[in-house]
Amino acid sequence: MFQLPMLNFSPQQVAGVCETLEESGDVERLGRFLWSLPVAPAACEVLNKNESVLRARAVVAFHTGNFRELYHILENHKFTKESHSKLQALWLEAHYQEAEKLRGRPLGPVDKYRVRKKFPLPRSLSQPQQKRELAQATGLTPTQVGNWFKNRRQRDRAAAAKNRLQQQVLSGGSVRSLADDDGTVDRLGPASSPEASLSSKAAASAISITSSDSECDI
């Protein structure tokens, strides 16, 4: 059996340790174990062909905030479908965190959609096979499955737009209430004026439209 230099473990045993530590959630110990592995070119070549080791490296890179290393691993190595779900989540969450740090605020559904469009999953984690399997499980065609996810994204965007509009309407109502309390309603104009009435109707109409759009289905 081939032994790694400076270690009493075979590549299969190294993979087993990585899997055990990953499943236990002890990322700190997993990181220390990976750092203890040999760096000789021959040994690295053997380990970099092992999916369990690569997945463990990706997990450690994510949890230590080394997103550049995470992206490099996911973009340059192939993975079986058993690893896709977890690695897809790491890819997306890493990009979400980078976007949040850049913008200085939490991301909403529309923000996350834009991040996914800007940073699509690498080919190593592509989903055609998963889409076909989901289609078979649901009795739908792959196109219908794709349309369902497209409609879901549209509903998320519509819901976000509706929430923003409702906040604007509520904010406008608060301003009018404060004006009434301060006795400045005459300067702002009566709430029942034609302009205010038209504004309220326009806001209600816009909310109705977004509500209708958000209910679209396949």
UniProtKB/TrEMBL annotation:
Domain Homeobox: 115-159
Assigned GO CC terms: nucleus; transcription regulator complex
Coiled-coil features, chain-numbered ranges: none
Keywords for this protein: DNA-binding, Homeobox, Nucleus
Domain of life the protein comes from: Eukaryota
Localization: Nucleus
A molecular-function term among this protein's GO annotations: DNA-binding transcription factor activity, RNA polymerase II-specific
Keyword Hydrolase recorded: no
Feature: DNA-binding region: 117-160
Main localization (coarse): nucleus
SMART domains on file: HOX
Pfam families tied to this protein: Homeobox_KN (PF05920), SIX1_SD (PF16878)
InterPro entries, A to Z: HD, Homeodomain-like_sf, KN_HD, SIX1_SD
Signal peptide: none
A GO BP annotation: eye development
Region (Disordered): 121-140, 172-218
SUPFAM superfamilies per record: Homeodomain-like
Composition bias, Low complexity: 191-218
Name this polypeptide is given: Homeobox domain-containing protein
